[in-house]
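Practice set, problem 2.
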Amino acid sequence: MKSIHQTPSLFQVAEISISYSSKVKPSERPKIGSSRDACEILRDNWDEGSIEHREEMRIMLLNRMNKVIGIFLVSVGGFAGTICDPKVVFQAALKANASSIILAHNHPSGNLKPSEADLQLTEKLKKGGLLLDIAVLDHLILTEEAYTSLADEGLM
């Protein structure tokens, strides 16, 4: 009796599926005209109490008219920091077909001053955005009571 032994193909690959679904009509999306607008929308969508509890990185995804497509949670860290992988940031932006993004993270300590790591990350993401034609418009640092806009402070 002959044994049939199948050898796996050398060319088998995983199938990738990319999807985006919005439940908000384009006419109902809020428009961002200032860092204050972005901060208010971000605060409304931040988990209650977590601004002082743990550091999180989020991005606000915008269309060509600066209307909010959505907000994406990039990472959750501890009290002293979180990791932001640029590939994750731009994966979400590309999936949503965003024209621009606003970076945002919180400082549970209440310190509004951007760290050197914050400034370096912002610069790195701006450069990545240039390659992909996705503008990085701002980077907000939120605390429970206030916020800092790197764009407003001339740090972008």
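Problem 2, part (b): a different protein.
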Amino acid sequence: MMRHRATLWGLGAAIAALAAGMAAGSPAQAETTILTGFTLIDGTGGPARPGMAMVIDDGRISWLGKAAAVPKKNGATTVTLMGKYVMPGLIDLHVHIGTVKDLDQQAANFTTASVEKDLRTYAAYGVTTVQSMGTDGDAIFAIRDAQRAGRPTMARVYTAGQGLVFKGGYGGVPGINHPVTTAEEARKEVDAQVAKHVDFIKLWLDDELHTMPKMPAELTQAIIAEGHARGMRVLGHVFYLEDAKRLVSQGLDGFVHSVRDQPIDDEFIAMMKAHGTWQVAPTLSREEAVHAFGAPNPITKDPFFRQSLSPAALAKLESPEREKTIASNPAWDRLPAFDKMAKVNFMKEVRAGIPYGFGTDAGPPGRVPGYSEHWELAGMVEAGLTPGQAIAAATGHAAKWLRNPDIGTLAQGKWADLVVLDADPLKDIRNSRRIAAVYVAGNKVPSVHP
């Protein structure tokens, strides 16, 4: 943990213990917290507002305005935040949770404890909501439902349950996902996920650079049509422009990666506009992460990166053997070009007015939960967004995709999901890492420990 954050992460022992052991929040209590003196970045993309104050009653914002006019509240806890910046908690629309331990990914790792550990890690990094993309065991549903019944003390979770994978093809986690081979099997698997009350349907359409069989068109059509018939939005993993066009023409609701094989064209943009298709998650940090650790990388020495990783995970990540394995990928020389293409295509969509959100594909080995979101913000700015646009993508825009009006922006009546920063992220997006405190539903979040 970085020294300048240590004193600002303190929590009472009871709250820390509760956060460590439960996905749902504490029992309802009458409690009021007043935050005052900060500069507000509200998540709408509008200008920052200095000299602001906020009253939080039982986890929700009951008043927001100028600090000079803050109402008096008997019994309130007042926190003075002079010189600080307050923004909404980040919302990552593409993560994978619970399956990785010490860089080892497998179905057996997925437990209630492993999921809650990841959700606490995300929250400590200022990520207050995540959308888990199709590699969840059934334990996820009780965790999610308990959160929604109360006040979470860790990141809120949305889930696609077990996403749809073609037998022998790319995607999923063995032992969690149930590969399909026919359209009828695909429809039955969609129905099975709907019966579990997933938030979305997810499918993978990829052949891993022509090394694996690809899901046929009749299966993707069956998945999308059945999902829509059951009232669900359907999200797709893609790599190739050709496949992306197929999915849009079949009615896909959103992509959870940018197209990476070639520049997108005007036809594709027109198709997305006509169908209202979202670029839900550009996952720019994912494209960097897949080639970033094939040699010694200074990122691994950054305390902000290291603070959530176990000693075993760090040792593996920095081992020469793992670096050689990554660098031995037959596509190694091509990976940086895919990274650049993802940025180019994402910005073409932004400039064309395609709706977009924020997502990282964090979770699999080497794509570190919490750190990846700040890497993604920087990547979006490198691609061409302003810091304000990047923050809006990760807050207000992402909440719009989730259709949850209670999160994503800071206003009266909404949940107090927010991050307190020591420096202005609108001047330098890397200041998003200068975290002083995080609140989820008004509950101050403890620091993360491996």
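Answer key, part (b): Confidence is low (pLDDT under 50) at residues 1-29. The first helix runs from residue 3 to 6.
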